[in-house]
Amino acid sequence: MANDQTIRQVPGLYRRRVGDFVVTAVNDGIVPIPAEVMVGMAPEEVQKALASRFRPADPHVTIGTYLVEHGGSRTLVDTGSRNLMGPTLGKLLKNLAVLGVIPDQIDRIALTHLHPDHAGGMLDDEGKAVFPRAEVFISLDEEKYWLGGEPPTDALGISAQVNSYASQLRKVYGDRWHAIGEEEVIPGMRREALPGHTPGHSGYHISSGTDELLIWGDITHVPVVQIAHPEVGLAFDVDVEQGRATRRRILDRISADRLAIGGMHLEFPGFGHVVRNSSGYEYVPDLWMPEI
Ligand SMILES: [Zn+2]
After folding, report:
1. What is the CATH architecture assignment of 13-285?
2. Residue ranges of the Metallo-beta-lactamase domain (predicted)?
């Protein structure tokens, strides 16, 4: 894909303040997926919806992570995909380096779920921990589903891979691996159950003073389609129906409460709001600010 005419984008970083917290969207890359992977809308309708929003014909899925800084501590929400999903992804560490942050400085990793575009950045090629000091937080339901007994199966063969990678992760991170309920990972940042995409899929809600942010994980993968059409799911959703219900509930809540959101697959810079209009929901990205 790269040729002499290719101009590399500037680093994928964007910061926002949430009360006393500084939250930085750290991009891991972007990857096209076939329109056929979307569930509940015919591929040609998907392509029409994308064209109407000036997007390429194949849905392009942004992959992102969030660095949450508070009082000198650093929590990374998800870790991108490293080299597990191709050369257009795996930019997390490079982008963190631009911030002056090295893996050794990450105190905690809060995972939204165990899919490879979220947990894939945690082990290097030799199977060692990329983040040597980080305490890892994952929901009890997520651990139970992937690692609780018989490995789950699916038509695409993804579950077997997730099961094997997740068991390796749990082993390598050892006593730094913590399965949690809906509790605080650090004061002011609470795990929230958002089941459907996976059974233990999590959001992280940050609250400080009067300021709030919900990092909603994978409530949408192709937001230009799914925010206007919350009924559209993805073949990778473990429970499409539950995913739909959760997506509707969250869109309703954040638009009513005017709650700011971040999301792993929101288009960069990965922060915004959702408003209700006459035909449904609409995403309003944050205004870029040179100082926060
Ligand atoms: Zn994902």
Report:
1. 4-Layer Sandwich (3.60)
2. 62-265
